[in-house]
Structure formats: structure tokens, C-alpha cells
Amino acid sequence: MPIKTFGTMGVDWEERVHFDRLRHERLMRIKAELKKSNIGALLCFDMANIRYITNTTIGTWAIDKLGRFCLLPQDTNPINWDFGIAAKHHDMYCSWLGEGNSRAGISTLRGAMPPGAKRAEDVARKIRIELEERGLHKEPVGVDVIEPPVLFALQKEGITVVDGQQLMQEARVIKTQDEILLLAQSCALVDAAYDELYKFMRPGVRENECVGLVNNVLYSLGSEHVEGVNAISGERCSPHPHIFSDRLLRPGDLAFFDILHSYMGYRTCYYRTLAVGSASQSQIDAYKRCRYYLDAAIDAIKPGVTTADIVKLWPKAEEFGVANEEMAFALQYGHGVGLAIWEKPVFSRLVSFDSPEEIKEGMVFALETYWPASDGWSAARIEEQLVVTKDGCEVITRFPAEQLMVVGKKYYTAIGPLSETRETQSHKNIDYTGVDYGGAGLP
After folding, report:
1. Are 55 and 28 spatial neighbours (Cβ–Cβ below 8 Å)?
2. Which residues of 206-235 are buried (b: 16+ CB within 10 A; e: fewer)?
3. Helical ranges in 113-241 per DSSP H
4. Domain that holds residue 291
5. How far apart (Å, rounded) are the C-alpha atoms in residues 74 and 80?
6. Are residues 184 and 157 both part of a single domain?
7. pLDDT tens-digit profile of 325-369?
8. What is the number of domains present in the chain?
9. pLDDT digits over 234-266, tens only?
């Protein structure tokens, strides 16, 4: 039975995403990981980690500010210090936090606050007080990401700071049933965006127009954040620049897209490659090879295999014209997807042989492959998101990608439809040399 995507709203007549269960299970998972560790408390500034622990968010504008923070001490519920009046809002409407656990507190805003305002010292003092009240002030505190002034202030308060990001990653790597439903729904929104993109693309459309269309579709369907849309076409495909431009699509281009957005916090990373008007044999061959490496990896996914088992199925960097694995990083790649686009586990020839990770039921990740065409400028890029099941996996990205698809208006000649398989110099009539026009070479 496929992963459910009944609808985007809660209803009384079907069990869909159970948000109370989602909140409870996420908190219980990180509490369990914290209990097994030698860390006394977790201090988080990463918005995804704060959302996982406290089930609060204030919008994507705050992602890069590092202004909010939460503390999860051993055996107690989290305390969330929020951006000004948001603390009162969460106190009123987020009953699961408990009375008094939503408070105002502002960090240095990545250095925007003047050092004389002592915001870093205020953060450290707040944390020390909570730790002392619980007898945890002599225990290590795990931190995910932190500004240097805050780190120094914590250390000055006598707090031992250690890495807390790995603990958060371990808690988040296996998805709950509601997380999986939200991830599938997030992919469903991108399915729709690709369908609109397929109908829209044609010669003369710019890459940035494609990006605008995708943003409009996603936000209209309920996306809370479009993190990025890679739109790469023509000669920009090889090497891959990882950013869109104002380039015009032209007949005979390959164009690939990566759509990264968030639905209820849960992300997508979802590549597709399309041909504009027609494709050359070189482009078709590149697509087939790209698809082969992706399918080989998908077929091998099941609980118990490791990331090393998967990446050995992929070509070495030198095989597709790249100097080394560091330069080829993320071209043949896999990564967990959840509240962040890149989570555990990571699949890469750069790291997976040295530090393999076991694949487990309930993981959700994306696998993506790339192959440059022999024409020297085109390339194919395909990606699928999947859920690991008890005996394999289920792909939750559904826009067709088994073969290279051609977009744009179909053209007709005097003798019938123009072939959609055409070489780069496709305007030349390759049969003219075999025609006898009475020796003159003309009709």
C-alpha cells in the first residue's frame, strides 16, 4: 500500500497526520537519545532542531538569525527562549510547552547586537541558572550551532560545551509515521509543480521564469517555504553550477531542476531532467546512464545494507571527468530528508567507505545521480526520495522520470511530425547528400 497523501487539511472522517502524536513522538525520541548520552542538556539554536524539540516555529525569515534558542535538560521538558512577543504567543497557543516554558530571550543576531549590550552573556546566564536549578551545571551541555561570543560566555560561566548536533541527528534519522506522511505530501506538491513546468517550458522561456512558476505553484498549494529551485539548462549543465540564471531555453537543450521546499516543516530534494523540443542521441545516452546508476542504488536499498554498499554501485569521479571525489561531491549522492534538506544518512564516495552507516526501516532519504553527455555541454540529473520499508523501499517522488521526456510544442514538417530525437545541428537535412537532383545538387 503506498504512503498516504489523503489531503492537506485535518478532517474528522479520515485519520491523516496526527499532530499531537507528531509532537509527542519527536520529543520522546530526542529525550531517549539524551538519556542514553553523557550529556546533561541540549542547547539548540538551529531552527530545525528547535522545531523538533519544542514544536514551535516563527517563519523562515528567522532561519539565519540564530536569535531563538531552546534548552532540553535531562528528564524535563524543554524551555524555549523566543523572539520577543512570539514568546507570549507560544505561551498562549502551544499548551504542550507547559506553563512558564515559553520565554523571551534574544541572542546576538549573528553579531548585529553591539557587544556592549551583553546579549551573549545574558544567554549564558539564563542557561547556567536552569542547569543549576536541576543540578546539571557540572554536566556537559550539547550545542548544535553557536556564535563564538555565546560559546565564550558559556565557557566563562563554567559550562562545558560539547557537540550536540550528532545527538539531534540520531534522534531525527528514523522518521515517525506522521513525519513520513508529511514528507510524502511535500513531494506531492512538487509533483504538481513539475506538471506545470512540463506544460510551461518552451524555447524563449528563461530559467528564472521557471523558478517563478514553481514558487507560485508550491506556495499556492500550501508550501511554507521554497528554499530553492535549481534551474540549469543548455551549456550550464556541465559542470553543474547549482544556481539558476536568466538563460533562455533553446531547442535541443537539456534542462534539469531541483525543487527544494518545506511543507509543515518537511522538505524535498527532487531533481528532474527535461529536453526542450528534442534530444540528441548523446543526451539520451547520458540520461539512460544517469537513470541506470540511480535505479541500481534504489534496487539495493533495504534494512541492513550500508551507505558503502550503495556508493560502490556508483562511478568514481574520474569516470565522468572529475578530478577527485571532493570535487565530485553531491553529483552521485544521497542524503536524509526531514526537517532539513540534508540529514543523516549521507551517501558519498567521499565519506561512506571510511564511515559507513547502516540503512534502517523508517529512514527517509533522497538519492541523486548525474551524468555528463558526450557532447561536452549537456548533462542529466535525476533524484528520487524514498522511504525504507521492512524489506526494501518505496519511492515517494512520482513525476515520471523513467525515460527522458521532451517538453515544448510538437513541430511538423511537410511530410509529418519532426523527430524528437535530433542531433545538435538538427536543422541540417542529413539525407540531402543521397539525393540525385540531375547532377546539379538542386531540385
Report:
1. no
2. bbebbbebbbebbeebebbbbbbbbbbbbe
3. 119-133, 148-156, 165-172, 177-200, 207-221
4. 177-407
5. 15
6. no
7. 999 999 999 999 999 999 999 999 999 999 999 999 999 999 999
8. 2
9. 999 999 999 999 999 999 999 999 999 999 999
